[in-house]
Each structure stands twice: as structure tokens, then as C-alpha cells.
Amino acid sequence: MGAGQSSDKLHCNRYLDGQGPPSLTQQASDRVNGTSYRLNGCQPEGQMNMEILHRGLPGFPNDNTIQITFMFPDGIQTEKHPHPGQTYAGLQVTTYLPDNQKGRGLLRLVDKAFYQKLLFTVATGKDGKDKVTASIPLKVNPDGGSRIDDPPDSDYLETVRKLLKDKGIE
């Protein structure tokens, strides 16, 4: 760890590099004797809103759609981020899940990860600017497409479930 780097900052950067932090289960925390969850992630302050759309998604034409919108205003980085005291660009992104048993189960996990501050972080983009970014893949086009973040993807729900489990979210 270099001079001036906090262990929390190293923890977030190690996770983003795919090396994995020590015991995210401990850091994300389970409920212990009915107490509240600890919020130890790197995620900046933001909002998560959900609504049901009466339309299907590619691969799920007979199910309604869960639309989740995440909103993060521009802000100032904390010690848990790459450049404490510097600004970062906020983010507004909408993602979609099928409104079925698996989709609602994944929504519950996404909600849990969001409120434990494990779903987004501040990272430096390829352009050298710091911005809010998701730590899991998000399906952002409800009509499908050729990009990796567009449905359909038959393994998407299970992939995200496994990624969240790796963060201690079950």
C-alpha cells in the first residue's frame, strides 16, 4: 500500500481489479441479532427507484418488466475512492429485469447490495476522469441489441446472482 492510500481505498481498488478483497461477507455484513446492516462499500450517495412496465423483454415476452433507475449526483470523492477530495461525475442509469420469480429474486439482491453500498463505486474511466460506475453488468436496453449490456442473455440473471454472492449478498 502506497503512502497516502487508506486500506478502504485499497480494498475498493483491489475489488475493481478483480483480485477480490478479504472477506466481503464480513464487510458487507449479515444481520447479527436483528441489528442493521453495516454500510461499508465504496458506493457514493444515490437513489434507486423501481417500477413495473407492462411490456416484455426479449427472451421474456410473457412477463412484465421491472425497470430500475439508479441516480447519483456529481460529488466529491471520499477516502474510499481513487482521488479523495476531487470531484467525480454522477450517473443516471436504468436497467431492466423480467418481472418473474427469478427477476424478483434478483431485484431483492440488487436492492440489498445497493443499500449496503456495494453495487456502484467511483472509478477512473478510460478518459482519465473519475465517475460513478456499476460493479455488476447492467442490462440497459429493454429492446435488446448487440452490446454486452443489452438483453437477451440467457445467463444474465444467474451471472448477476453469482457476482452478488461473491460480494456477500445472498
Structure overview:
There is one protein chain. This protein is globular. It has helices at 7-16, 24-28, 101-115, 156-166; strands spanning 47-53, 64-72, 75-76, 87-88, 91-99, 120-124, 130-134. A hairpin with a 5-residue loop joins strand 6 and strand 7 (130-134). Helix 3 (101-115) runs parallel beside helix 4. The chain has a three-stranded antiparallel sheet with strand order 1-2-5, covered by helices on one side. The chain is of the alpha+beta class and 170 residues long. The chain contains four helices and seven strands. Helices cover 24% and strands 23% of the residues.
Return the structural class. alpha+beta
Q: What order do the SSEs take from the amino end to the carboxyl end, as H and E?
A: HHEEEEEHEEH
Catalogue the unreliable spans. 1-11, 13-39
Largest sheet: spatial strand order: 1-2-5
Estimate the strand proportion.
15-25%
How far is the first residue's CA from the last residue's CA? 31 Å
Outline:
This protein has four helices and seven strands.
Distinctive features:
single chain, 170 residues, alpha+beta, 3-stranded antiparallel sheet, two-stranded antiparallel ribbon, 4 helices, 7 strands, globular
Write the layout of secondary structure elements.
Layout: H1 7-16, H2 24-28, E1 47-53, E2 64-72, E3 75-76, E4 87-88, E5 91-99, H3 101-115, E6 120-124, E7 130-134, H4 156-166
Antiparallel strand pairs: 1-2, 2-5, 3-4, 6-7
